[in-house]
Amino acid sequence: MPSWQAVSLALTALALVPTLAPAAPRPPVTRPSKQYTIEQFMETTDVFGASFSPDEKRVLFTSNPTGVFNVFSVPVTGGKPTQLTHSTTDATFAVGYFPKDERVLFTRDQAGNGLTHLYVRTPDGKETDLTPGDKVRAGFQGWSHDGSAFYVSSNARDERFMDLYRHDTKTYAGTLVFQNDDGFDLGKVSPDGQRLSLEKSRSLSDSDVHLYDFGTKEVKHLTPHQGDASWKTATFAPDSSAMYLLTNEGSEFTRVVRYVLATGKREEMEKADWDITSMAFSRNGAWRVTGINEHGRALLRVHDVKAGRPLAVKLPEGSISDVELARGGKRMAFHLTDDRAPNNLYVFDFGTKKATRLTDTLSPAIDAKDLVVAEVVRYTSFDGLEIPSILYKPLQATPQNKLPAVVWVHGGPGDQAYRGYISFIQYLVNAGYVVLAPNNRGSSGYGKAFVTADDKKHGKEPLRDVVEAKKYLTGLPYVDGSRVGVLGASYGGYMALAALAFHPDTFDVGVDAFGPSDWVSMLKNIPPYWESFRQAMYQELGNPDTEAEQLRAISPAFHAYTIRKPLLVIQGANDPKVLKAQSDQMVEAVKKNNVPVDYLVLPDEGHGFSSKKSELESSTRIRTFLDTYLKQSPATARPAN
Question: What is the pTM (predicted TM-score) of this model?
Answer without folding.
Answer: 0.89
